Amino acid sequence: MKVIIVHSSPNTDGLTAACATASQDGISHAGHEAQILVLNQMNIGLCQACNDGWGTCRTLHTCQVEDGFQALHQQTLQADALVLVTPVYWGEMSESAKAFTDRLRRCEATLGKESRMAGKPILLIAAAGGSGNGTVTCLLSLERWAQHIQARVFDLITVNRWSRDYKLQTIQAASHALVARGFPD
Ligand SMILES: Cc1cc2nc3c(=O)[nH]c(=O)nc-3n(C[C@H](O)[C@H](O)[C@H](O)COP(=O)(O)O)c2cc1C
């Protein structure tokens, strides 16, 4: 099983990075392959809501804004499962996570049940390193996003500064289970 772990913090040595590494450890301990992709290093800009609101996302299910998104879109479609880790900013996902998720949603949600993400397991992690507030609202919008693209949410995990130690273990265990067990029939 091939998994991509999307890391969406500008900080490559913080809580988000620790969560991504814990996930990768869990997946590799289960004998599967996981690649961490650092969104902030991938030149992925915001959705431009092309034309009157829709560009080729609606008709061709590709994004016409040419940057790093096209390669990431393909990598995402080729992966068997996705782990998305975002720092919590203002109770929401990070700007880079928003850019990626918005553009992917436009290309895939417009396919309805034919979405190429349909049924794909997704593990969503919100890392709040400040007050610890805002993980629920952050995950709420990510859960809705996963539903729009017809993916299946395997788990939603919150982590903050004081839950860090045991939540990193949880993330490792959840990532292991994601590839070793998947969803029950
Ligand atoms: C613009 C901004 C808004 C933030 N908002 C929140 C917040 O709502 N709740 C919280 O607990 N932390 C908040 N933080 C702190 C981040 O969640 C924290 O720094 C987190 O650890 C970032 O992940 P990192 O360690 O990968 O950088 C915010 C940080 C920034 C830069």
In short:
By secondary structure, this protein is of the alpha/beta class.
Note down, in words, how this protein is organized.
- This protein has a single domain (2-42, 76-180), classed as Flavodoxin domain (Rossmann fold).
- Helices cover 41% and strands 19% of the residues.
- It has six helices and five strands; from the N terminus they run βαβααβαβαβα.
- Helix 1 links the parallel strand 1 and strand 2 (33-38).
- Helix 1 (15-29) runs parallel beside helix 6 and helix 4 runs parallel beside helix 5 (135-148).
- Flavin mononucleotide binds next to helix 1 and strand 4.
- Flavin mononucleotide (FMN) binds next to helix 1 and strand 4.
- Pfam families: FMN_red (PF03358).
- InterPro entries: Flavoprotein-like_sf (IPR029039), FMN_Rdtase-like_dom (IPR005025), ISF_SsuE-like (IPR051796).
- GO terms for molecular function: oxidoreductase activity.
Number of domains: 1
> How do the SSEs run, as a string of H and E?
EHEHHEHEHEH
Percent helix range:
40-55%
Outline the biggest β-sheet. 5 strands, parallel
Number of helices in the DSSP assignment: 6
Write the CATH architecture name. 3-Layer(aba) Sandwich
What gross morphology would you assign? globular
Low-confidence region ranges:
none
User: CATH homologous superfamily?
Assistant: Flavodoxin domain
CATH class: Alpha Beta
CATH topology, by name, is: Rossmann fold
Coarse structural class: alpha/beta
Small-molecule binders here are: flavin mononucleotide
Q: What percent strand?
A: 15-25%
Overall mean pLDDT: 97
Report the radius of gyration as a whole number of Å: 16 Å
End-to-end span in angstroms? 18 Å
* Order of neighbouring strands in the sheet with most strands: 2-1-3-4-5
Overall number of strands: 5
